[in-house]
Amino acid sequence: xxxxxxxxxxxxxxxxxxxxxxxxxxxxxxxxxxxxxxxxxxxxxxxxxxxxxxxxxxxxxxxxxxxxxxxxxxxxxxxxxxxxxxxxxxxxxxxxxxxxxxxxxxxxxxxxxxxxxxxxxxxxxxxxxxxxxxxxxxxxxxxxxxxxxxxxxxxxxxxxxxxxxxxxxxxxxxxxxxxxxxxxxxxxxxxxxxxxxxxxxxxxxxxxxxxxxxxxxxxxxxxxxxxxxxxxxxxxxxxxxxxxxxxxxxxxxxxxxxxxxxxxxxxxxxxxxxxxxxxxxxxxxxxxxxxxxxxxxxxxxxxxxxxxxxxxxxxxxxxxxxxxxxxxxxxxxxxxxxxxxxxxxxxxxxxxxxxxxxxxxxxxxxxxxxxxxxxxxxxxxx
Length: 382
Hints:
The chain is mainly β.
């Protein structure tokens, strides 16, 4: 978890809400959807509401109109309420819409205009606003009969995982490394080689299976191999709202992209911007820097630690710099906050200007070179 520009070295921790919480399914008009749709299931929504907030989703559940006039959609994870004036098919239904964690919206959010808070969200207009995770909704655009196909595809094992759980299945999808494209909210953490297999709108983890075979070995932490198509065989398992293929007794081979549906069309990924330094301590032009200082640099995104060695230069630049003892230092790269820390072997010499240079030989995890960077500061009297 990395600090961001404007909040250097601040570590953010994301709390994922677990357990059963009320969800409403609302059918009505929604604003234009720009984020990619996610095929998912009720268990995933219940476990990771913050991840799905404001994302278009597709899920499958059993719809039933109760004697009270309340329409509900149910699955293994529980049932949810559907608010709709119109015909909804009873039985297995496919629901498409946008997921809201209402507590993450402001009471004056324009998305809420036109909705009766009490009727639609069970929120008292004069009462306290719900906290995140308390009231959630899918603002659905369509509810229709679900396809009856039970063929094991990547999308089907996400939409109806109970049909395939503990079964050995073969799935074809695109390699996405260790969730490099942000398809899933969490990781099962089963082995050192866990990776994500994805289609256009669905994704599962593959565990206990290294992504390599005859003539190929894919990089888990670099985008360079994302988009390569694989055929993976394993046993489908589920937990904490995640699905994964256990490949301990399975296999992985290169595959060709399927051509039968638009849902499985290859995804073209734009190149990431070059990594750059977004924060330093000391800062550029700073004077009266302590002789016992350490140097800290923060990158805009992940870099390959092996490329740091030999790419950093720290020298005195005063008129008598050639007479000064060379600066000796050690470096440590902390991947989570993307911070490079430099510790000097002895205190810096007082009243000396110092120049720090990072060369473009520093590479991002996708082999993009760093934008060359220079820092100058002046050491104080002590």
